[in-house]
Amino acid sequence: MSGMSTAKPTNTTKTAKTATTSTTKAPAAGPAVREGNPGGGISWWFSDAGEMALRNLKHLRRTPDLMMYALIQPVMFILLFRYVLGGAIDVPGGDYGQFLLPGIFVQMVLFGSVAGTAVGVADDMSKGIMDRFRSMPVSRSAVLAGRTFSELARTLVAVVVMIVVGLLVGFRFDGEPMPMAGAFLLLFAFGYAFSWLAALIGMAVSGPEAAQAGGTAWLFPFTFISSVFVPVSSMPGWLRPYAEHSPVTVVVDTLRAWLGGTDAGWAAWQSLAWTVGIATICAPLAVARYRNK
Asked: What is the radius of gyration, based on Cα positions, of the chain?
């Protein structure tokens, strides 16, 4: 009909196709978010653990008093025992400085690893940070491993300070390079094994104050009933069997031998067994408690 206008039909198919294409090609806003489960492979685990360690180290940088305490305490122990009590203690060879320093290394690494890890884990638990980590696609074991890795970094700084102070008070490294390197590797491994025990303690207590008390109170008899400060032969007969085979004693004796250029003998194998055994038992227990808490 001549009076009726005809409208051009709309191409709905083309419009829908264009909309679909534009929706598909739209870039995602913001940074990419990693998706996956916490068990996504070893590279993912190391990435998670590294991020957790970096987070803890940043927190340590914002609270320098924690680092200062970790550095001042070993210096005080070295000076007090070297110049105040050392003259009253008879040791094989007669040089108390050579006898003392390896023991101080082990004691301070234990105190730093246990106290730092236990308090840090308990503080994160009390603030709900651990609950936040559990809600994220982060490996459960990597969260705790990151804490223990960051304590290793603090331990490294403390050991460097102790070496400098030890040299100033007369300690000398008389061993060969390889045994001395093995001594420090054993020292760090021993402290790292106990940091897993500390993580277990940190999750078992009610808060950071309780972790500070419960995490360090047992360390005093644990380190003093050993060869750290005095020869085991000077102890009572009923106490000597424990002191001779204490994990602290065998590690200290191994460090004394390797740093002094002598053979560690059976103590080296005992040290390795204690270190591996403590880590093998405590690490799975700590991860299991974190998953189930």
From this structure: 28
